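no rush on this but wanted to send it before i forget. theres a chain ive been looking at and ive put its sequence and its fold in C-alpha cell form underneath. please have a look and point out which stretches look like helix strand or loop to you. thanks a lot i owe you, the record is right below:
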Amino acid sequence: MSCSKFAAALVRANPGNVRNVRISPGRCRSTVASTKSKEETHQQIDGCSVVEAEPVELMSQGTHVKKTLLNKISIDFDNTQEAYRSKGNIELLRSLLVFKLCTIDVLVDKNKELMDLTKKVFGQWMFEKIMKLTFYGQFVAGEDHNSIKPLIRKNQAFGVGAVLDYSVEEDLTQEEAEKKEMDSCVSEAEKESPGEDHREKKFQAHRQFGDRRGGVTSARTYFYADESKCDNQMETFINCIKASGGASTDGFSAIKMTALGRPQFLLQFSQVLVKWRQFFKVLSAQQGKSDMKVLEQKLELEQLKESLIEMGVGAKDDIENWITGEKLGLSGTLDLLDWNSLINDTTSISNLLMVPNLETGHLEPLMKKFTAEEESQMKRMLQRVDVLAKHAMENGVRLMVDAEQTYFQPAISRLALEMQRKFNREKPIIFNTYQCYLKDAYDNVTVDVELSRREGWYFGAKLVRGAYMYQERDRAKEIGYEDPINPDYEATNRMYHKMNEMGLSPAENKVYFGQLLGMCDQISFPLGQAGFPVYKYVPYGPVNEVMPYLSRRAQENRGFMKGSQRERSLLWTELKRRVLAGQIVYKPAY
C-alpha cells in the first residue's frame, strides 16, 4: 500500500506494569487532541489515514509527571510551504511529472517494455540519466550506501528518519519463478511419495501460485536458488544494516525471511504452529472455554491430562513429565502461552515437526522422512537470522522482519519472537510485522505482548495493512481453505483501533509513522516537523537492478493517484506560491 504505517510499541515487559516504558530520547512527544466528532476527524488524505486535515492541537505528555504539560502545536496539512520546505522546485516538478505519468494506463501496463525500448534507443548511460530525473529519482535514494547519505541527512534535518531497504530484485519470468518455488517448497519425501505426508493444502506448494509476485505490487519477493545465494543475500542485509548505522543514529533496516533460507521449512513449521494452536482450541472447547478471549482460555491441568490420556497422546507418566518438565501448570492451569512453549525444542528440527491429529489426538510426524541436508539447510537459515540480529545490535540499528504470505507467516513470526526474546532485553532491536487485514491480527499482537510482559523483554511491532490481499483470497478460494483476510475495510480498521486498548498511543515515543520514499510527503514532513517520529522506507540500489521495484511503484501509484488528485494539487499550489514570491530558485535550508 502507498502509506505503510508502522507502530513500534516499546513496551517494557514487567508483569503487572503495562506502562513501564523506556523512551528513546528526543523523538516523539505528541498525540492528537481534537474536539471534532469521530466522523469529522477520521479522513483519508491521498490514501494516507490521518487524524484531520485542519489545524489541530497536540499536547505533549511526560511519562513520569502527574501534571499534564500543554504545548500547543499546530499541524496544517494544507500548508504547502511547511509540507514541502525540504523540496527544491526541480523535485516538485519531478513529483508532478511522475505522478501524472502513473495515471496513464498504457504507460503503466507496458512499463517494462517501454524501459527496455528506452534503453535500446538511447543507450545505457542516457537511460540511467532519464530514470534518475524521473522514476528512479522519485522513489530510490541512490545506488549504494554512500550515495544515499545526503538524502538521509536532509530528511533527518526536517524530522524524518530512514528505514533502509536494498531494493534489488531478480527479474524472473513467471515460468522461472514457478519452477524455483516448486523445487524449494517440496521436500525429498514428498517428491518420492506424493500425498503420504500430513501436509494441509494451505501449507503445500501449488504451481498455479508458484509465482508469489502475482497480484502483489507493494512487496519484494525472493525465490530460493541455493544456500550460496542465501549467504549472499545475508551479506546484502548486513551491508544495509551497516549503511543504516553509518547514515543515522536511530535508523531501521528491513529483512525478509524468505531471502535467508529454503521456504520449505517456513511452510512446515507454520503448519506445526497452526496445528498446535488448533489443538489448544479443541481442548479449550472440551472444557467449555471456547467463547472466552484467547488469553482468558485457561485449561484446567488435571482435566487436560485426562483428555490427553484418553486421546492417546501418551501414557500418564509421559504427559506428567512433558508438562512438569517445562515447569508449566504450577497454578493448576495452562493458557495459550504455556501451551506454545511446549513446542520449544530446537535441538532437532525433525523432532520439532510433529503435529497433533485433531481427530485422534495422536502426535504424528509432519513428514515421513527428513533428510540430513534438509535439517542442515533449516539450521543455516536460523543461523543467518541470528547473525543479522547481532549485526543490528552492534551497529545500533533496529531490525524489522517483514511480513509475508499467511502460509509462511506463523513460522516467520515465531522466529522473530525468538529473536526478540534474545536481543530485546535492554531495548527494542527486533521488530515483528503484523498485517492488520488478517482476521487473527489482534489475537496475535495480544498474545505476543503478553508474552513479552511475562518474560521481561521489549516488544517491537510494525503494523501494516498487508500486501498480499488479492493473492491470499484467490489462493484460499481455489485451493479450498478459509479466507484469512478480513471481510471488509472496516474490519481491518478495527484491528488498528483495538490497539488503543493496549495503550499504544503516539505519546511517550511508543508509536512511529512511516511511508514510502517519494509518496505522501505532505503527511510525513508536517508530522515529523511537529515532533512525531516519522520514517521513510528508503530503497536503494543500482538503476538496472531496481527496475522490478520501480515497475511495482508505477503500478501501485496508478490507483493511488487516480483515486485522489490532492497531492498533485498541493504540489501545484506550492510551485505557484514560490513563483509569486520570487522563489524561482529555491534551495532548502538546513
User: Anything to note?
Assistant: Residues 1-72, 345-350 have pLDDT under 50 and may be disordered. The chain is about 45% helix and 10% strand.
